[in-house]
Amino acid sequence: MLKLRPHHIVCLNFYKGIGYSENFVSNMDLIVNKIKNNPETKILICSQADDICKECPHLQIGKCTCEDNISKIDKNASYYLNLEVNSIYKYNELVKLRNKYLTKANFEKICKDCQWYKDGVCK
């Protein structure tokens, strides 16, 4: 089972093989390949550092140095994608929710404070 923060459900949709570092990209590639090859993969939606975060340079001693901002993004993602934190979903269920609820307006509401969004990576 994977652990993912709510906003990472959005990020997975826009992932292009770039990231903070080579280790981050390698980790992200493994996760993307796992869920695409097995859409039944179970995912626990969590509110703290997850399996994607583990190779992020912002993760220091198990905590995100950007936690205040990321928590806001997670709350918006949970709300607009109709996700329950601490619930388990199959990846294909998350894709259906994302496809149903991720309108352009909701995307902007979720991601407006994200640096990747501001840099134009996800547009």
Automatic annotation (TrEMBL):
- Top-level taxon: Bacteria
The record's listing under Pfam families reads: DUF1284
Q: In its UniProt entry, what is this protein called?
A: DUF1284 domain-containing protein
- Origin organism lineage: Bacteria, Bacillati, Bacillota, Clostridia, Eubacteriales
